[in-house]
Amino acid sequence: MRFSVATIRKIQDVFISEMNKGIHQQPSSLQMENTYIPELLDGTEEGLYLALDLGGTNFRVLLLELAHGAPVRQEVKRYYISSELRVGSAIPLFDYLAECVSDFVISQGLQDVELPLGFTFSFPMVQHSLDVGILVTWTKTFNCSDAVNKDAVRLLREALDRRGDTKVKVVAVLNDTTGTLVQGSTLDPDTAIGLILGTGSNACYLERADRVEHWETERHGEREVIIDIEWGAFGDNGVLDFIKTDFDRENDANSLIVNSFTFEKYIAGKYLGEVVRVILARLTKEGLLFVGESTSESLLTPGSLTTDLVSHIEQDSVDGDDSNTKEILGKFGIIPDEDDIRIVQYVCEVASNRAALLVSICLATLLDRIDKERITIAVDGSLYKHHPRLEGWMKQYISLLAPGRKFKLIHAEDGSGKGAALVSAIAQRLKKRLQ
Ligand code: ADP
Ligand code: MG
């Protein structure tokens, strides 16, 4: 779980090679998807923009008012999507989404106003343009199989047309990572990377347009474009197997979709706790941990140790304290001795530290690839926000791995909401320019 310098270099080389293959449309575990967003906000954006955020636990509709390219007002409403709709057919699901949009727009008294809408659809998709996103596969809690291989924007537009009670125009589709980059750029104009460290993990960055081969729409002299790396799947083709441990194999075997999202399973919130649990369970079985304690059944149950608990134990390490660790182990029915506490804290540190290092290796590589004088990385997600040591380690490792590069990490909250409204403003501006 601790990497040598040679291993770090090898990971870096593999990442570079997979990025290059992906961008040249050769087989690669990195999709390197063109988002067709060729520029950020320029400060001229004004007026009202809508966003739909589908992908997390809740479904939200947002209204953002912009003045001089910056948000000045925001209205949000959350809606509940029943499990029947999540796993039924596409039409009832999208009819419901359209119903929520209407409900929101009418409650704001905006039914007669032409409103551009950005659609955050945080599922893997292939984009043919800024407003065409073909669903590759559902993930998380959704599975409306007849929507696979269909354009999510078209499904939404058709549902809105069936109602016909608003003047909403869907102008862009994106994922949360892209939204985070764009949202970050309103906080810091040097933003060129968007990063998600939440349930899952992904990153996107501003790439030179001349390096991008997959470009289905007409080009208009774009200099840059946001590329969605889709790095959660990095290593799904086996290129990262040299860092895979037995713990990772077990973590994968206990996951919902095995043999996929290799990189995400090393780092993201959905999995980090499970990596720690697998290690603790192994040490216990080998008689190296909790000696003399009766074996905790719940510690042997996959999924029982969630990543927020890792954060709490890490907080003890930061504070030189034991209270969180004892309390958490107590909930597993374990009364730890002094050695147990040190071991549990060490395992949490090793797993968290590996996650920080892996993310930093890829970010350092991106800093070199983007090659600008100053680069800001906009980050969103609860893992990054709440883990007490990730940010500090990332700063340290990126500095070491990309020496001389000036970079900043900023927290850009709600890229999947605000970011989508901002992208719809960019889309609208691009459209007007071409008319
Ligand atoms: P999403 O990724 O669904 O948009 P979040 O960014 O809020 O949502 O991430 C939620 C994930 O963050 C949870 O699955 C959990 O694994 C992780 N998480 C929640 N709280 C903490 C915490 N205190 N420390 C570390 N990770 C956390
Ligand atoms: Mg999120």
Automatic annotation (TrEMBL):
Known EC number: 2.7.1.-
Gene3D superfamilies: 3.30.420.40, 3.40.367.20
InterPro entries from the UniProt entry: ATPase_NBD (IPR043129), Hexokinase (IPR001312), Hexokinase_BS (IPR019807), Hexokinase_C (IPR022673), Hexokinase_N (IPR022672)
EC class name: transferase
GO molecular function list: ATP binding; D-glucose binding; fructokinase activity; glucokinase activity
Keywords per UniProt: ATP-binding, Glycolysis, Kinase, Nucleotide-binding, Transferase
Domain annotation Hexokinase N-terminal: ranges: 2-184
Key word Kinase present: yes
Residues in Hexokinase C-terminal domain copies: 193-425
A cellular component annotation (GO) from this entry: mitochondrion
CDD domains in UniProt: ASKHA_NBD_HK_meta
Reaction(s) catalysed (UniProt annotation): D-fructose + ATP = D-fructose 6-phosphate + ADP + H(+); a D-hexose + ATP = a D-hexose 6-phosphate + ADP + H(+); D-glucose + ATP = D-glucose 6-phosphate + ADP + H(+)
Any Gene Ontology biological process: glucose metabolic process
Keyword Transferase: yes
Family: Belongs to the hexokinase family.
Protein name, per record: Phosphotransferase
Source lineage: Eukaryota, Metazoa, Ecdysozoa, Arthropoda, Hexapoda
